[in-house]
Amino acid sequence: MQLRYSFRLYPDTGQQRALAKAFGCARVVFNDAVRAREDARKAGQPFPTAGQLSRKLVTEAKRTAERSWLGEVSAVVLQQSLRDAEQAYRNFFASLKGTRKGPKISPPRFKSRRDARQSIRFTANARWHVTGSGRLHLPKIGAVKVTWSRALPVTPTSVTVIKDAAGRFFASFVIDTDPATDARRMPETDRTIGIDLGLTHFAVLSDGTKIDSPRFLRRAEKKLKKAQQELSRKQKGSKNRAKARLKVARAHATVSDARREFHHQLSTRLISENQGIAVEDLSVAGLARTRMAKSVHDAGWSSFLGMLEYKAVRYGRTLVQIGRFTPTSQTCHACGTVDGPKPLDVREWTCSTCGTVHDRDHNAALNIKQAAGLAVSACGAPVRPEPVLAQRAETGSHGFPTGNRAA
Fold first, then answer.
1. Would you call 196 a catalytic residue per the annotation?
2. If both were cysteines, with which of 67, 166, 229, 340 could 253 make a disulfide (CB 3.0 to 4.6 Å apart)?
3. For the chain, how far is it from start to end, CA to CA, in angstroms?
4. In 3-state terms, what secondary structure has residue 230?
5. What is residue 210's three-state secondary structure?
6. Tens digit of pLDDT per residue, the chain (407 long)?
7. Cβ count near 155 (within 10 Å)
8. Which residues on neighbouring strands pair with residue 280, listed in sequence order?
9. Is 114 strand, coil or helix?
């Protein structure tokens, strides 16, 4: 499987200008490709092929006075931008046909220099390399300083340079990993666990462990509010407004990085300690439309479940998701009696049949484990009817943890 190892970059002033030029050229080529396809669609003509777009928008465009500056950046960056446009259209058409999982997506839109995220990609053909002093040498940009938090296990297949909304630069390396080798790194265990995700506690495990919710956004609300107020008072288009915008973006980046690091540490610990893990298939999008929306987004359940999914595949663990309509909070785990729905403020209840007193979240975690049907044989291998390992939604890790690592 493929993973992304991300490291912080610190380009100097000249390298930042070169990167800005590369971001701009890649954006122009992408927009030209989208425009060419839209013009063909409106004229009722077939879409131009990738080869035709490459010849017209890159090779021939460099010879014109209007686009001669495209030759100042690596040709690989421009070709990869065309590939991104091609892939965006493939995803759009697959979504229309229903062959792509997830919600329907819109057709590719034009990119803007004001977009929060700018990126360029270098493949092996670009001849980028890591210098002897540990810097990342990129064609027509130079040797950029990198903060290495770990060694790359194998030679990467590509590197993507990203600038986020907070003005930070990252190098994201695509690494091919061997799941069998990764699985041997995990300690052998025969434990199984059920997890009930919530807001009062981020997670309650079937063994009774309760993990408090850090509530990163709630704790930073006062600072975020002050920074946003300062931004709203600045004149549009002024340098002070640009500085205030960066201050707001950095404050939000601190919150998201802390949340992501918490998710990585918790998911890695659960995968390391348990052979089988059962979770509930939550409708996060639906819950985000309720009065609890801010708390739901602050918890970041989707990100956490995504990490559990790809780490289970990577390390040879079993992850089972039970249906979201299973009445885990209404069922007595001791006798199986369904006692009916209960308001959220009811944290303990007594079974009307067997008289067992239940902690609402702990009981739900036990029911999730039972509904998943997890069992472990004597040799430590998971045994259940038709075991299915959870698959990742896409290759690569999600975002950039504070520690600059792909956990």
1. yes
2. 166
3. 14
4. helix
5. strand
6. 888 999 999 999 999 999 999 999 999 999 999 999 999 999 999 999 999 999 999 999 999 999 999 999 999 999 999 999 999 999 999 999 999 988 889 999 999 999 999 999 999 999 999 999 999 999 999 999 999 998 888 889 899 999 999 999 999 999 888 878 888 888 888 899 999 999 989 999 999 999 999 999 999 999 999 999 999 999 999 999 999 999 999 999 999 999 999 999 999 999 999 999 999 988 888 888 889 899 999 999 999 999 999 999 999 999 999 988 888 888 888 888 888 888 888 888 888 888 888 888 999 999 999 888 864 333 334 444 333 333 333 333 334 344 444 44
7. 11
8. 322
9. coil
Residue 121, both tokens: 């990609």
DSSP string, 276-302: EEEEE---HHHHTTSTTHHHHHHHTHH
298 annotated active-site: no
Active-site residue, selected from the candidate residues 84, 196, 257, 309: 196
Distance CA(204)–CA(369), nearest Å, equals: 12
Which member of 257, 280, 298, 309 is catalytic? 280
- Alpha carbon distance 136, 120 (integer Å): 14
> Nearest CA to 158 among 129, 121, 114?
121
The Cα 56–Cα 187 span in angstroms is 55
The CA distances from residue 231 to 70, 135, 165, 234, in Å, are 35, 36, 15, 5
Q: What would the two tokens of residue 391 be?
A: 């698959």
User: Three-class SS of residue 158?
Assistant: strand
By C-alpha distance, which of 350, 197, 224 is closest to 280?
A: 197
Q: Where are the beta strands (DSSP E) in 238-376?
A: 276-280, 318-322, 348-350, 357-359
Max Cα–Cα distance, the chain, nearest Å: 84
User: Global pTM?
Assistant: 0.84
Active site residue 257: no
